[in-house]
From TrEMBL:
GO molecular function term, any single one: oxidoreductase activity
UniProt superkingdom: Eukaryota
Keywords associated with the record: Oxidoreductase
InterPro entries: NAD(P)-bd_dom_sf, SDR_fam, SDR_oxidoreductase
Matches recorded under CDD domains: 17beta-HSD-like_SDR_c (cd05374)
Protein name: NAD-P-binding protein
One Pfam family this sequence matches: adh_short
Record's keyword annotation contains Oxidoreductase: yes
Family, similarity comment: Belongs to the short-chain dehydrogenases/reductases (SDR) family.
Length: 284
């Protein structure tokens, strides 16, 4: 193992950003603990790279015991973890009135509670296992972790929840732990989460007009008209780790940049417009 190489822990490594970043890291000389529900999906990579470069770990992020076991496997293999890429997630298309409660709860189990399981173990590992202490935690959110979107309400809510949790975590961490957290917000990149891994539930009839925002979004997301290159996205993520002052957020995609700026402007506009409403709301 090169003294300059990093140890990465990647969740959701079977496809999409997880697969892309695993390939890139190995090519550039880093070492990877690639976690996924079906390790055989990376059999081609495990045949190409030795066990001192790539470790595969079976992991369903919704199962706390599997998360703990995967981190323990990383400790056994490499002795430390430098970066956790908290990426595992899923998307289900459906209106707020239309998506079944079962599907919505499972979405939260993966996108929020699964991410929480990884977050908690990452922080503990960085603080208590790493010598020297510290590490980088990259929380994969979305443009839809910044703004709402039709036919995606529960996905949006799961990412908003992850962003709120991550902001709070940043405020809780003790500076001497040397743990840096960044929320990564990709826009529409061409990955399997918006292709074969996307699950779409029947449209609620109240929203079925072709001109409705819900119908238009369903048409768009099924069009595969996504200009973002996933390999270039993960290269930007890897570049982030070399930045000493970690940003709270890293929006990546022109559409995400626009959405962030529009959201910030909207918040400022509302605060300015109604600031006087708070003038007389206090005890004398």
């Amino acid at each position: 193992m090169s003294p300059n190489s990093r140890i990465w822990f990647v969740t959701g490594a079977s496809s999409g950003f997880g697969r892309s970043i695993t390939e890139l890291l190995l090519k550039r000389g880093d070492n990877v603990v690639a976690t996924l529900r079906k390790p055989e999906a990376l059999s081609d990579l495990s045949a190409q790279y030795s066990a001192d470069r790539l470790v595969l770990a079976k992991l369903d992020v919704t199962k706390r015991d599997e998360v703990v076991a995967a981190f323990a496997k990383a400790k056994e293999a490499f002795g430390r973890i430098d970066v956790v890429f908290n990426n595992a997630g899923q998307n289900v298309l459906g209106e707020i009135e239309g998506l079944s409660e079962e599907s919505a709860r499972h979405l939260f189990d993966v996108n929020f509670w699964g991410a929480v399981n990884v977050t908690k173990e990452a922080v503990r590992f960085f603080r208590e296992e790493n010598k020297p202490i510290g590490g980088r935690l990259l929380q994969v959110s979305s443009r839809l972790g910044v703004v709402g979107g039709p036919s995606s309400g529960y996905y949006v809510a799961s990412k908003f929840a992850l962003e709120g949790l991550s902001e709070s975590l940043i405020k809780e961490l003790e500076p001497q732990w040397n743990i840096k957290v960044t929320i990564v917000e990709p826009g529409p990149f061409r990955t399997k989460i918006v292709q074969e891994n996307l699950r779409e539930e029947p449209q609620h009839p109240a929203y079925s007009r072709p001109e409705s925002a819900s119908s238009q979004f369903r048409t768009y997301i099924n069009s595969s008209d996504f200009g973002g290159d996933a390999d270039k996205f993960v290269a930007a993520v890897v570049r982030l780790v070399d930045v000493d002052e970690a940003p709270v957020r890293l929006p990546l995609h022109k559409r995400t940049i626009i959405s962030v700026r529009e959201k910030a402007q909207s918040l400022n506009d509302d605060a300015d417009r109604y600031a006087s409403w708070s003038d007389d709301l206090y005890f004398d």
